[in-house]
């Protein structure tokens, strides 16, 4: 990304829950009364980083909090509550050892999906925040976040058959990260939720800080 990279400092901002690094969206496509972006939210020193797609898909255009409002967002939040990462009010929860963000943080009008150029324009912001958080476990939700995380933060993207039902709730070697892809909740079938809960319970019970980046089998 060269000169287009974004530099972030974690000093004096880690006590902020929403947008702890003070990111400013590079564009605003919304009406004056609408939310410009849904920024990263949670513990800036977290070991677990859940990565969604964009606000219109996984929620937050009203609350400003990722994984709220939509059915898919609520399904992810329910799993995280069961595992005690999430407490308190659903629309403004308290997070423990967890950070939530989107690969495309900007809101768009009338339910529009981001274009390829808009995703590309926000890539450097997402990358800078991800590296500032420096979580041990990355949990991308859905096809685009999973594709991006596997491509940019592992050496495995071209070696794997990109099939979300197969990748779901399995570990993939990362360049300094453990990656556990999550199938989009809108596509979950019998057993998908339980598989995700079981995988996260297993990671929490392990010494995952010592196994950061270690590969395990897929499938």
From TrEMBL:
Keyword tRNA-binding annotated:
no
Annotated Uracil-DNA glycosylase-like domain residues:
39-186
Give GO terms: molecular function aspect only.
4 iron, 4 sulfur cluster binding; deaminated base DNA N-glycosylase activity; metal ion binding
Asked if Plastid is a keyword of the record, the answer is no
GO BP of this protein: DNA repair
Q: Where is the composition biased (Polar residues)?
A: 1-20
Keywords attached to this entry: 4Fe-4S, DNA damage, DNA repair, Hydrolase, Iron, Iron-sulfur, Metal-binding
Provide the residue span(s) of the region labelled Disordered: 1-29
SUPFAM superfamilies attached to this UniProt entry: Uracil-DNA glycosylase-like
Name the UniProt record assigns to this protein = Uracil-DNA glycosylase
The record lists the organism as Natrarchaeobius halalkaliphilus
Its lineage reads: Archaea, Methanobacteriati, Methanobacteriota, Stenosarchaea group, Halobacteria
């Amino acid at each position: 990304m060269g000169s287009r990279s974004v530099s972030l400092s974690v000093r004096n901002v880690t006590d902020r829950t929403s947008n702890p690094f003070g990111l400013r969206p590079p564009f605003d496509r919304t009406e004056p009364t609408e939310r410009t972006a849904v920024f990263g939210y949670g513990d800036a020193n977290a070991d677990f980083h859940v990565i969604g797609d964009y606000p219109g898909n996984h929620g937050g255009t009203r609350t400003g909090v990722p994984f709220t409002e939509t059915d898919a967002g609520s399904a992810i939040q329910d799993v995280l509550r069961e595992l005690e990462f999430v407490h308190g009010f659903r629309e403004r929860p308290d997070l423990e050892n967890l950070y939530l963000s989107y690969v495309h943080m900007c809101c768009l009008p009338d339910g529009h999906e981001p274009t390829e150029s808009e995703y590309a324009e926000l890539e450097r912001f997402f990358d800078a925040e991800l590296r500032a958080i420096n979580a041990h476990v990355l949990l991308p939700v859905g096809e685009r976040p999973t594709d991006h995380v596997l491509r940019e933060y592992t050496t495995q993207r071209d070696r794997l058959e990109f099939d979300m039902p197969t990748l779901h709730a399995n570990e993939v070697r990362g360049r300094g990260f453990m990656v556990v892809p999550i199938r989009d909740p809108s596509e979950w079938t019998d057993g998908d939720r339980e598989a995700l809960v079981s995988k996260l319970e297993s990671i929490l019970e392990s010494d995952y800080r010592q196994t950061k980046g270690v590969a395990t089998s897929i499938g």
